[in-house]
Known about the structure:
Blueprint: H1 9-14, H2 22-46, H3 53-64, H4 72-88, H5 97-100, H6 109-127, H7 131-136, H8 143-154, H9 159-164, H10 168-187, E1 194-201, E2 204-211, H11 214-223, H12 225-249, H13 258-305, H14 308-313, H15 322-344, H16 351-383, H17 390-412, H18 420-455, H19 459-487, H20 508-521, H21 527-550, H22 558-566, H23 569-632, H24 651-671
Amino acid sequence: MFKKNHENEFMRHELRLPELTVRGMLLGAVLTVIFTASNVYLGLKVGLTFSSAIPAAVISMAILKLAKDSNILENNMVQTQASAAGTLSAIIFIIPAMLMIGYWQGFEFWQTLFVSMCGGCLGVLFTIPLRRAMVVHSDLVYPEGVAAAEVLKVGSSDEETKKSGNGLREIFAGGLVAGLISLCTNGFQMLSSALSLWIPLGRGITQMPLGYSTALVGAGYLVGIAAGLSMLVGILIAWAGFVPYFTLTEVAPDGVTLEKFAGMVYQERVRLIGAGAMGVAAIWTLLTLLRPVIDGVKESIVSARSSAGEDIRHRMDMDMSITGISAVFVATVAGLIVIFHAFVSPEGLSSGDTLMFTFVGVGLAVLMGFFVAAACAYMAGLVGTSSSPISGIGILAIIVSSLVMYALCQSAGVFDLPGGEKFATATAIFTTSIILAIACISNDNMQDLKTGYLVGATPWRQQVALLLGCVVGAFVIAPVLNLLYEAYGFPGAMPRPGMDEAQALAAPQAMLMTTIAKGIFSSQLAWEYIYIGIGLGVVIVIVDILLRKNTTRLSLPPLAVGMGIYLPPVIQTPLVVGAILGYFLRRHMKKAGGEEYLKEGERRGTLFASGLIVGESLVGVALAGIIVASVTNGGDDAPLAFIGKGLAPYAAPLGFIVFALFLLYFVRMVLERK
């Protein structure tokens, strides 16, 4: 029986329960299809995806509880499999660019399948040696991973937990509140999702935004004050520094409002600065993690060579065997070589040039993928999967891939061929797609392994479940992409003449990466902004080093600052609010009731924050399904909206009032004494 003190590591080592079951894998496959389809639509619509780990865990517990012998480890495997595929859908941040440049006329099923599947499997493999360094021997918070573990613990079949109901109230309360607010905001559209106050500064302008996402407030509470304040610094650098400067020193184009001009400045310049800063931060993070990563690899080798008795005793130390890792690695790289060769073969290149493009493209994707895996795993531990800027990694990848392919195409004389520039651009995008698939799974994988570590799962079984999730999810992505493309189209890529381009899916990340790739091959990319970001990133790293050296509590995580510059502020402000709120609540509880009160309140806050993520995620999944069904049957993309145009002006103040009341309820829930 899974006792109340299962947090104890020895007890978790001794836990013996079925984990990777047939019914669990089948349920995980079904959830994989649902979450992948939902994430593909939402990612193309608004440029964001959500972590499917927690909703998968909740659904798994509800269904498998019908079987008397279900257990927490089986439910953990289901959410592991489903969350991997849901995250793999983030490949849509780049793959629609193939249509935007006119290279594909529709999504190629086998090429999209192999890129997603093989890239995802490599992402799993590359994070295996990082598990000990970043999960077992690290204090990274992994907000979604911790939240999923809390949900699984409370919902497990432990008799003592069921008898006391301890924690269920907080999770259900958070889920209900977040679900209702999300439904009223994104479904009924009665409430606005953000408040944006534009502030004129002479001839320039900036904004003071506030997002109302309850799930992100919960994630911010779990993330902590250091990352929260670092993101706030990034927001201030972008919106109190660069945006006002550029709008003050330049004149808006004719017919463009100041607000729209500020948005253009942010998209076309400031985000490139953020990408440069994140690139420096990612490299620095990799260097700081080099020693623990090497130690983790050594531990993995030692574990693989250990005796059977030691393996049984240390079940939670068992990763996939070296033989298994090698076999999957060889198979996935072989698959990438085959599909990359098929991609470049029809272009009329010589057999030698075709092989050169194939091996350089695959080699670059695998090598760069290995390095971004560590950075993405760290980012997930720092701010969570939902808030981790995978598209920022994509920007760095498209720049590197484009530069390498530019050099190759020049040496092979490709630019002299008809359509040579388009082929070069497409090859860079295809290479980046593989890198981004690796990054997506690396970003999510560590959250799942953190959940497994907290509930007592066997790592190698989780890694097998992650591989299964990648395979199943890859089969879903291409058909869903084609369905949505035929229904809406993308900017500059409409499937049928006469379609309304205003209704096209924005696919903002793919559009940005298309712009970068085209800019490199046409020699028109604004490199100066990336250079500014690189310089800024170096300064931030130095400041962080000095703070850590001269103070005991202060730090400025460079990746978090880079994210603050790069990500839209309406996404980050609720994270900052949650982090600051958590800091003051913890400080008050420690002063008012000491360590015991702090411990109780901390647990209530963690459970309530977990419930917030659960509620908004589940409603997001349900709304995505309703929207896709509506579009498929000829309806619009807001089938539940009923607010009239006359009431629209009240949505913003109503949203603010509801958000303020929600924060008060959060405070009351955490500070409540029993």
